[in-house]
Model the fold of this input.
Amino acid sequence: MQSRIILKMATRILLSNNSLRSLITVHGRTCAQNIRLLSNEQVHLDFIPIPQYLPRQNEPLTKKRARLLYQSRKRGMLENGLLLSCFADKYLDGFTAKQLDDYDRLINVPSNDWEIYYWATGKSAIPDEYQSEIMKLLQEFVRNESKESRFRQPDLKNSN
Done:
């Protein structure tokens, strides 16, 4: 019941804001077309769009590394938070600009974190668009042949 009230409020805000409403389009339909308010104030959802990831243009490498480190640590899924934060701690500082772009795409484009986890652990086939040097390095890291302890995220380094 409480989630329905929150959804109604969010829908009203979205529909009342013309700039937001026109920005979000899915399959040629605006969000306003995807979300219809019925006369009895119930919300009917045809489709809730997942925002498309847009790579940042001209982002300085130091800022990109900091953003990717943060995004590696804050996954919303413990397994990936541990894997990716440890991976980023070990490799992110040494990545080239292209490797950073590949890693950015890997952790931000898939809409489901479980996909990343299953690809990294070898439980699912990796789609061609994610086959890269970074994915191979992540899979090698996940195998953990040196038996490193990875039961918590590494401490953040002081950037002074």
Q: What stands out?
A: The mean pLDDT is 80. The beta strands are 25-26, 29-30, 35-37, 43-45. The chain has eight helices and four strands. The radius of gyration is 20 Å.
